[in-house]
Amino acid sequence: MERTGNHATHGTTKKVPAQVFLKEQQYLKPVTTINITEEIITRAVRKDNTVLYKSNRYSVPMGTYQPEKQLKIIEQNDRVILQDIKDDQTIAEHPLCKERGRLIQNNNHCRDHRAKIEELYEQTLELLGNNEQAATFLTGIRQDKPRYVRDQYQLLQKLSKQTSAELMERAIIYCLERSIYSAVDCRDVALWLSEQTAEEEEASSLETPEWLKIRAEKRDVGTAYAHLTGGEA
Hints:
There is one protein chain. This protein is of the alpha+beta class. Among the domains are: 41-110, no CATH class; 114-204, no CATH class. It is built from eight helices and seven strands; from the N terminus they run H-E-E-E-E-E-E-E-H-H-H-H-H-H-H.
């Protein structure tokens, strides 16, 4: 570093880093000390859709389990809050159990909501034309956005009632060709295609100028040639 990195002339800037740093030092400010007082506690989601905390098992909604999935645990006001690490969304909340070896369970977590999602899938597929492209698109959304699949399907249902079947099919094909699995993006594509179609229809409906309606006179070449040569056609 002393011989090459800091003291050799840089190939792009044509400056010596050590000299540039001496100038920069005049403007540098000390970093404010940051004290992280919150202890972040995480636990893995078990296959039975529970989280082990202080020797007790706390339930989470059925289907939460995924390999290596972790939840953040917050203990607050004698309650245990389980949150998603990625976006801090609360997955479950339970009263804190001060005993050991207990299962603290919300009965609603035992219900399989996948049946309702399947029903919503079938309804949406029917509204989108019940074809292969629509099925592939809906399956892609379900895999790509499992937590928001209900909102995604409901948006598509609303969109299908406001948009023609032909336009919806074109929007879905556009998304599939680009591996886009989002109801919001599909809506934007449908709007864009609708605007494009409107512009094309407006352009085609413009009145043809008079000069384009003029047609050249057509005469029989044989007759004209015979007349010029003095013969018969």
